[in-house]
Amino acid sequence: PGVVFIVLGVVCFGRWAGFVAAYLGSVTSVVFSFIIVRAVGGQPLSEDALNTAWGRRLSYFLQRLHSEPILIVALTRLLFWIAPPLNYMLAMSQVSLRDYTLGSMLGLVPPIFVLCSASSVLLPWLETRGTETPDAGR
Fold first, then answer.
1. Where do runs of H (alpha helix) occur along 1-131?
2. What's the Cα-to-Cα distance from 138 to each of 65, 84, 128, 130, 135, rounded to whole Å?
3. Which residues have CB under 8 Å from 115's CB, separation 6+?
4. Tens of pLDDT along 66-92?
């Protein structure tokens, strides 16, 4: 659903102002989600949780997240953008709010830029597509 708001930002404000609005809205959204989930759920994906079968599958990811939090958050944002399950999982890990915010800010720039650029090109094309008539050249 977040993609719809990014495209609407381009429709309402144009490519660059839409990018800024979509970027700020996306970062605010994922940080707000992180804060709420962290406050409600705590950090159940800590070191103690790695002893379960499910936890062992996450152990490599969580170890990397612990050693390079900003990089790992940025890379997961590149892959999963503003996906709520990613927000929830990272909020329940040991990553700090600062590292989460910085990683999200870095990782969200490329996908939002690409989506805003594509929207600003495709939307005018789609708009003119239905107005052309076969007899227009005669």
1. 2-13, 15-41, 53-67, 69-80, 84-91, 97-129
2. 64, 53, 19, 18, 6
3. 3, 6, 7, 22
4. 899 999 999 999 999 889 999 998 998
